[in-house]
Amino acid sequence: MHNKNGKVALWGNQYIFNMAHTLNDYLREVETLFKEERFIFDPKELYEPIDYTLRLGGKRIRPTLLLAANALFGGREEEVRGAALGIETFHNFTLLHDDLMDRSPLRRGQPTVYTKWGDNTAVLSGDTMFALAWRYFLRQPTPRLREILNCFNETAIEVCEGQQKDMNFEKRAIGDVSLEEYMDMIRQKTAVLLAGALKIGALYAGAPDGEIEKLYAFGLHLGLAFQLQDDLLDGYGDTAVFGKKTGQDIRDLKKNYLVLRALQLSSRQQADELTRLFGDAALDEDERVVRVMALYDAIGLKPSVEEAIGEEFRAAGECLGRIDADETLKAPLRELTATLVGRKK
Amino acid sequence: MHNKNGKVALWGNQYIFNMAHTLNDYLREVETLFKEERFIFDPKELYEPIDYTLRLGGKRIRPTLLLAANALFGGREEEVRGAALGIETFHNFTLLHDDLMDRSPLRRGQPTVYTKWGDNTAVLSGDTMFALAWRYFLRQPTPRLREILNCFNETAIEVCEGQQKDMNFEKRAIGDVSLEEYMDMIRQKTAVLLAGALKIGALYAGAPDGEIEKLYAFGLHLGLAFQLQDDLLDGYGDTAVFGKKTGQDIRDLKKNYLVLRALQLSSRQQADELTRLFGDAALDEDERVVRVMALYDAIGLKPSVEEAIGEEFRAAGECLGRIDADETLKAPLRELTATLVGRKK
Q1: B185-204, pLDDT tens digit by residue?
Q2: Distance CA A48, CA A263 (A)
Q3: Residue B6 has what pLDDT?
Q4: What are phi and psi of B139, to 5 degrees?
Q5: Burial A112-132 (b: 16+ CB within 10 A, else e)
Q6: Residue among A45, A127, A128 minimizing CB distance to B168
Q7: ipTM of the complex, rounded to two decimals
Q8: Distance CA A21, CA A51 (A)
Q9: How far apart are CA A149 and CA B153, in angstroms?
């Protein structure tokens, strides 16, 4: 056996060969998984939108986390390929239905399913994707199957609850939504799926409960940091690198971290102005963006948000540090964290 | 132990007490299950439509089949309560999304979820119901869990495929859809879920594969008979008993068994007339119903459809007869079959 950085561990009664993978190894493996998988069956009207969605790409963060977490505890990669496909298929199902509900015309620069094939196809192909995710999870037997599926399903329910809370925010004034409520919403809508992917990977490897808990906490902090970064980029991204117009959340009157934090930091007068800018439906969209951003700058919002993001990344790193596992196996997770810290899009 | 009609069977290494239930016992048990279950959690905007849907009632055929099939092979009722809730929750999820896609304003005489709460709520509460169905299925550990969940999930995928095929028919002319295609569509959209419910009940009881196969075939025939009966009632139901206007499928230009079978039995001239009636968008709806029904009568359609339904019921009964199980335990399934044979709504 010649394994670059290889190590051999005794697990149960069989030898497992762990190669210390880099982040890029995992990303490539996930790409290969999706490339080799067939998504079109009969009737094609149902499956073509699914194939389209799953081949659009994206960052593939969730299956990558799942593979890396599995390796962290000496798991066998061939046992988690189904789960890796499943978690990404589920994630793309939620995007497909969210785009329909939010009436978002573009995803990854391409037309969304409902704009291309209509609302009904978006509903039904989405439903089918959810079931396909289950098919992937059920592909391979595993001793902790019920626990794994419970984790997946409870995560799915939380994602739905988070999406509903996000939609509820739309009907409320900015001053009425607290920062705590916002953090709770993004925890459910975004963070639990990253944490769940990690937990599932670790469960397949038979990791101890205590270690899984630390890994889950790592995932939650990473997910929160990721979403706050998203909010920051919406306001302060470099359009050329970001790939889309900044200020879209302001245009959509979306309650994101920026506006809710700005409200906290505002003087009474600034808060009134911000509330007015978010309440004036007649105001020109671009005008609104310019005025809100000017207000953010006057408040000194950016460094404060960067600090909050830094705090989540720091907490994530700390959780990862406390996990009892080989440092070389933690490296891809640290690498992913670092990539997300510095991301520009 | 005092069991009315009780019998004691040795199964594995424990005693199981089977009371010979009637169909009404099972229906009552299912009602109790739903009555005692809580469906409202936070956020209420997500769960209220779910609670509304699951409390609307309906025939509760699928969980009843599941309970009866479980008892047929000496299963323990307390082990399949989760699955019974799960299969009915899944069924109601498909109705909720189907009503949205078909723009059906009423279900069981009440406003459908999308008319009451809007499209987005229908999408997201439906998605959540699918996940809740999984939660019920995962509630209790069981030795054949993976097999049971696979059966549930493959059934779910077939139901989606069947719904897509049904939507595809809408875009085609009546002469272009064959009776075989129609039977394949209703097999997927309706029959596999009845068959799947039975199979799942039997799997929980640890029934032998050969017996499960016969039970599944019984379910398919029952499901086909059920759907053909539905089509017949749409044309020939007694409005007072049926509870809704007859001829709705004709109004909706829906390709159902009646029109496709009529086309088979038609002379060239009658076929042309039928095609014309289904192709003339300008024709008054009531006028269309009257003319199509007159044509059906001229063709002698009704007895031919009744014969096809009778044939499915006969085949169902034959499958049930071949199953190696106590006749007293088969009685509720025979009773349910008989109820469906004679149903007027």
Answers
A1: 999 999 999 999 999 999 99
A2: 45
A3: 39
A4: -60, -40
A5: bbbbebeebbbbbbbbbbbbb
A6: A45
A7: 0.93
A8: 29
A9: 13
Q: Do B149 and A161 touch (CB under 8 A)?
A: no
CATH number assigned to the domain covering B22-340 = 1.10.600.10
Q: How far apart are the first and last CA of chain B?
A: 41
A286-327: per-residue pLDDT in tens? 999 999 999 999 999 999 999 999 999 999 999 999 999 999
Instruction: Please give, rounded to a whole number of angstroms, the shortest distance from the CA of A47 to a CA of chain B.
Output: 9
Question: What tens digit of pLDDT does each residue of B114-132 get?
Answer: 999 999 999 999 999 999 9
Beta-strand relationship, A7-11 and A14-18: antiparallel
Please say whether the beta carbons of B100 and B117 come within 8 A.
Answer: no
Distance in angstroms (rounded) separating the CA atoms of residues B183 and B215: 20
What does the mean pLDDT of chain B come to? Answer: 93
Q: Which residues of chain A have pLDDT under 50?
A: 1-18
Quick check: B123 and A132 CB within 8 A? no
DSSP bridge pairs for B320: none
- Residue reference for tokens 């984790």: A151
Residues of A in contact with B126 (CB under 8 A): 123, 127
Distance from CA of B146 to the nearest CA of A (A): 7
- Provide the whole-model pTM: 0.93
**Are the beta carbons of A135 and B119 separated by less than 8 Å?**
no
Cα four-point dihedral sign A131, A133, A137, A140:
positive
Q: In this structure, are strands B7-11 and A110-111 parallel, antiparallel, or unpaired?
A: unpaired
Mean pLDDT value across residues B272-281: 93
